[in-house]
Amino acid sequence: MDRSTTVEPRDPMPEGYRRTLVRQIAQHAHSEIIGMQPEGEWISRAPSLRRKAILMAKVQDEAGHGLYLYAAAETLGTPRADLLEALHAGRQKYSSIFNYPTLTWADVGAIGWLVDGAAIVNQVPLCRCSYGPYARAMVRICKEESFHQRQGFEILHTLARGTAEQRAMAQDAVDRFWWPSLMMFGPPDADSPNTEQSMAWGIKRFTNDELRQRFVDIAVPQAEALGLTLPDPELRWDEDRGHWHFGTPDFAELAEVVAGRGPCNADRLAHRVRAHEDGAWVREAAAAHAAKRAAREPA
Ligand code: FAQ
């Protein structure tokens, strides 16, 4: 594939390319809106007005990312209502990471630092993805994610320098979120059915394992700067490879969570369906308003 130009919505494209993009972009969009839940639960419990304002802005950004991504998926001819229907019926996925609970305020910091950090490593290459609308949506999303990542780091930095309890809370959050964050990159390359074709099409630029390694290499010195440890006894600098060696994530756990059997899958989906049903009157009112305006304005 010619890497210098992008594929645009009206260009001819193989059916499999279109299907793969819809799958990945929809999963990505769903992740953004389901991803509002674990942190949204902490808005009313944030420890200060400043923290509350920042967290509210972050969660709103995630709704915005969902909107850009649904819009990008719609350019491929799939209506947003169909994508949401597929999510609600369990036919489309969202990222495994959002099926873990946020037990303490430090978890909000760990999500910002590790989950947004992993998201950035995965998404920066998508800014050069072969499909124009997806690549362009990613540019703005990555800028916002990098702000999110820094706010998470700053929360943990503050806690790590606080009381013994605060420090322990920060360490516990990192201990619980480290491995699930590594799982965000997907199964190992040898068990990833989509990577080869997606790379040939220029949708993915790097494999799951390459990006996982890149993330570990970035996170290890950051953990040191925080004065926190990472829960991996195998972690060591590999002089020969010039990379951090790390242990193997529990990919059986990833498979369970992706199959809908993670700690919070049922709650997350039920909450989403309820929010959608509660919002039906807003969608109806907006559609009625748009129809009225269209009838009033000359064509
Ligand atoms: N969770 O063959 P592969 C965020 C599925 S960041 C769930 O390797 P692929 C920001 C995969 O879909 C999170 N499912 O697949 C935020 C496939 O399913 P199939 C979202 C997973 O697509 C931060 C099957 O397993 N980011 O939301 C996962 O080539 C904080 C086989 O896997 C994106 O979606 C998983 N972790 O590579 C928001 C990035 N891993 O074929 C709020 C875009 C794999 O049965 C707060 N997506 N699967 O349909 C991608 O880069 C890719 O889709 C991968 C998976 C790398 C996730």
Question: How are the SSEs ordered, and which strands pair?
Answer:
Layout: H1 15-34, H2 36-40, H3 49-74, H4 80-88, H5 105-123, H6 132-160, H7 164-183, H8 195-200, H9 208-226, E1 236-238, E2 243-245, H10 251-261, H11 265-278, H12 280-296
Antiparallel strand pairs: 1-2
Helix pairs in contact: 1-3, 3-6, 5-6, 5-7, 5-9
Protein name: 1,2-phenylacetyl-CoA epoxidase subunit A
EC number: 1.14.13.149
Keywords: Oxidoreductase
Q: What labels would you give this structure?
A:
binds Phenylacetyl coenzyme A, mainly alpha
Query: Mean pLDDT across all residues, rounded?
Result: 96
Which cofactor or ligand species appear? Phenylacetyl coenzyme A
Question: Beta-sheet strand percentage?
Answer: under 5%
| Low-pLDDT stretches | none
Using the CA coordinates, give the radius of gyration: 20 Å
Number of helices: 12
- Content-based structural category: mainly alpha
Largest sheet: 2 strands, antiparallel
β-strand number? 2
Strands of the widest sheet, in order across it, are: 1-2
H/E element sequence? HHHHHHHHHEEHHH
Termini distance? 41 Å
In one word, what is the shape?
globular
Q: Which bin fits the share of residues in helices?
A: 55-70%
Protein name: 1,2-phenylacetyl-CoA epoxidase subunit A
InterPro entries: Aromatic_CoA_ox/epox, Ferritin-like, Ferritin-like_SF, PaaA, PaaA_PaaC
EC number: 1.14.13.149
GO molecular function, one term: phenylacetyl-CoA 1,2-epoxidase activity
